[in-house]
Design brief:
- By secondary structure, this protein is α/β, with parallel strands linked by helices.
- The chain is 41% helix and 18% strand.
- It has a 7-stranded mixed beta sheet with strand order 3-2-1-4-5-7-6.
- The radius of gyration is 19 Å and the shape is globular.
- It starts with a helix and ends with a helix.
- The relative contact order is 0.13.
- Bound molecules: S-adenosylmethionine.
- Residues 56, 58, 62-63, 65-68, 91, 93-95, 98-99, 114-117, 120, 146-148, 162-165, 169 line the site of S-adenosylmethionine (SAM).
């Protein structure tokens, strides 16, 4: 779109939103929009465009691609105790790789992104290349696989789960995590971002203990839960 058209279209879009959604929602949307654009150009990545689940052709328990906001994810990282060059981070359903790229700007030993879609995996790999000069972690990998079948590597210490799937897919993933914990007992945390109103299956899993809940941002309104895996209990509950 030409700049002059943008200058007309944008205020109209804002005006329409104030009328339909009200000033508070519009202020939230505007703030997050500005921050998203700022971060995308700073890291030289393109992770914003969503992909609906129908376009991906997944079954109904798998979700489409929508990235977590930069503000929320940076807030999440601030809450974690990242021992420099020791933690291995896994993003379940990494899409275009936003969370992977942001995590890799910190001193993780290894950052992994798992993604079912080939097209999104490719996009994630391109974004990692484009952000290269901003990354502190040199071992970053995107694996294209179905989360149900993926064996969690024994060195993974932080698992990020943000709205990628539900139902029996989520249950299989919890079982894969349990197997990994039983196989290689270690400090293992799950960062689960729970969309409002959704049932929290983690709370019902006996070998997971809830550490804390953090409201990530005034602008987005998602709650983050940190769970710690009790590896002895996980080993005893197969
Ligand atoms: C809500 S997005 C999460 C995006 C990313 N974690 C982030 O924070 O930017 C969900 C992602 O999970 C992927 N996904 C859905 N089902 C999956 C499965 N069974 N195995 C692996 N990835 C899956 C989708 O393709 C999509 O990219």
């Amino acid at each position: 779109m030409k700049l002059t058209n943008k200058l007309i279209a944008y205020p109209m879009k804002i005006g329409r939103r104030v009328i339909t959604r009200g000033p508070v929602d519009t202020a939230r949307w505007l703030m997050s929009h500005i921050e998203e654009n700022r971060q995308e150009s700073k890291l030289n990545v393109a992770t914003s465009s969503k992909v609906e689940v129908d376009e991906l052709g997944f079954d109904s328990e798998c979700h489409g691609y929508e990235p977590i906001s930069y503000t929320c994810f940076n807030r999440i990282l601030e809450e974690l105790e990242i021992r420099p060059d020791q933690e291995v981070f896994l993003d379940y359903g990494c899409g275009r790789g936003r969370a992977v790229v942001i995590a890799a700007t910190r001193r993780f030993k290894r950052v992994l992104g798992l993604e079912l879609s080939h097209e999104l995996s490719e996009s994630a790999r391109e974004n990692i290349d484009r952000a290269q000069k901003h990354l502190q972690c040199s071992d970053v990998e995107i694996v294209t696989a179905n989360a149900c079948d993926y064996t969690v590597p024994d060195d993974v210490s932080m698992i990020f789960l943000w709205n990628s799937f539900q139902g029996s897919v989520l249950e299989s993933v919890i079982e894969r995590i349990r197997e990994s914990a039983a196989n290689a007992p270690r400090k293992l945390q799950i960062i689960y971002v729970l969309p409002h109103g959704e049932d929290n299956v983690m709370q019902r899993t006996p070998w997971l203990s809830h550490q804390k809940q953090v409201h990530t941002s005034f602008w987005s309104g998602v709650d983050m839960n940190i769970f710690e895996v009790d590896c002895d209990m996980a080993a005893g509950s197969n």
